[in-house]
Amino acid sequence: MPFLENVLCGKNVPRERMLQVAEHYYHFGGKSPINDQNRLLINALKDELAEHGPRLPGQKSADDIERDQSIGQPRGSYADQPYGTKAP
């Protein structure tokens, strides 16, 4: 497998081990499955962001605030803030 030979060039990896690793690659069609998995993840994230927009931990939408108020949670109290920080 030329790719592995290039990657392992100059490294002390026994040929037998290289052939074992090559068998793993052959199991996935001669390539690493990581690139395909990453592409699927990237596309899923693009779809999610397109539908919902970016939200960072701690960000609250108007719906979140309204829900919190309906259950009696004080305005500006965030469970994910470690020191009980409150908005003015």
Q: Mind explaining what this structure looks like?
A:
The structure is a single chain. The chain has 88 residues and is mainly alpha-helical. The chain has a domain at 2-56. Helices cover 55% and strands 0% of the residues. It is built from 4 helices and no strands. The termini are far apart. The mean pLDDT is 80.
How is this structure best summarized?
The chain is mainly alpha-helical and 88 residues long. It has helices at 2-8, 15-27, 34-52, 62-70.
Largest sheet: none
Q: Which shape, going by the Cα principal axes?
A: rod-shaped
What is the string of helix and strand elements?
HHHH
Compute the separation of the termini in Å: 63 Å
Q: Please, how many helices?
A: 4
Rg (CA only): 25 Å
What fraction strand? under 5%
Number of strands: 0
What is the average of the pLDDT values? 80
Structural class, please? mainly alpha
Q: Which range best describes the helical content: under 10%, 10-25%, 25-40%, 40-55%, 55-70% or over 70%?
A: 40-55%
List low-confidence stretches.
none
Show the helix and strand layout:
Elements: H1 2-8, H2 15-27, H3 34-52, H4 62-70
Key phrases:
mainly alpha, 88 residues, 55% helix, single chain, 4 helices
